[in-house]
Amino acid sequence: MTEKEREQVALFRYGIIAPLLNGQVDSKQYFEELEGKVHSIPYYGERKIAVKTVKEWLLNYRRNGFDALKPKKRADRGNSRRLSPDDQDHILEIRKKFLHMPVSVFYEQLIRQGEINQNQISYSTINRLLKKHNLSGKILSAIPERKRFAHEKVNILWQADLSHGPYIKIKGKVKKTFLLAYIDDCSRLVPFAQFFTSEGFDGLRIVTKEALIRRGKPAIIYADNGKIYRSETLQYACAQLGITLTHTQPYDPQSKGKIERFFKTVQTRFYPLLKAEPVESLEELNERFWRWLEEDYHRREHASLDGKTPHEVFHSQLESITFLEDTSILDSIFMKREQRKVKADGTISLNKQLYEVPADFIGYSVDVRIDDTGVYIFKDDKKVAEAKPVSMTDNAHVKRVRSPFSVTQPAEEERKEENNRV
């Protein structure tokens, strides 16, 4: 089992115990519901989970954190055949165009079109994927029963979402912007929000880190099924911090009504200010937005808060907020993770680029983590080295260290050693 597979299993186990950790459910009732239920477990496949096992996971997590949920390392034979996250996204996008088609016919179509290999991806794998995302049958058209709710305490639940922002000029070119935001369910306060020129995960990383630093840690993050909110990086970070990450059902944006209402407020109260006085850069857009957020939105009385402001409600419960003791851990847990085997020349390949690592790692599989500052090698969750882009020109003039896996020596060196002995 690879390190990535161990992390996926740990993330699954954390998902099972998360409702118990945060007091979302009655433990007795929750265990009764788990009894006899079949789960699709990464690496292991479909299995039932004993209540005793779940209690053991819960105890291990409380004692030693997320790493205690990983299966113990052992030598496993064979490789698991599984759809990658990108493959899943691709198949889901295709499925949305053929919702009328029975899953069995859809599966056969994927094979005919060369999207999947029948010998590697079974019908049950595709069927489970579509069921998980509510794309397997006619239930798509059903309107879910919905009840209004609001948590009584702050930082119990944060709703997360992305909204399309205004077009602005950057270096003479018109660019589209996107607003990434969190909102606290109880107080309607926005822990953090920011405009970006892309919808990528880098923006979510920045917004999430800033929100946690400024406003403390929520028990639950509630997001839609967008790619960035289902990323393994976000799942891993939430598991490390003890946050439950939950997602809405597909095609059900109304279930995140509070943040949708916030975006509407931004459109009706902030965007008109930009028309009256346009911004000239992304930095200026964010500066004016943050000022409006603090001076207008957070200080304005809210009808659903009994005439109080989001600022008043949030700050009235400061004593119950859990702030991070060491915010520096955010830098490492929000890094993208990859596993690579170091080649005999001391390099790894990443995103079609060669990187050089210390010779000590030659022949070993290493934990690679990436962010916007660089590429790093980690061991036991600690940064131990930095991987540098390979410069072919510089390397031509560098004396290389022989690979420790080299068994024989060149003939010339052998002759020299023989002469020295004589």
From TrEMBL:
Region (Disordered): 401-422
Gene3D superfamilies, alphabetized: Ribonuclease H-like superfamily/Ribonuclease H
Pfam families: HTH_32, Mu-transpos_C, rve
Record domain Integrase catalytic: where: 140-318
Superkingdom of this protein's organism: Bacteria
SUPFAM superfamilies: Homeodomain-like (SSF46689), Ribonuclease H-like (SSF53098)
Biased composition (Basic and acidic residues): 412-422
PROSITE patterns: INTEGRASE
UniProt name for this protein: IS481 family transposase
Organism for this UniProt entry: Caldifermentibacillus hisashii
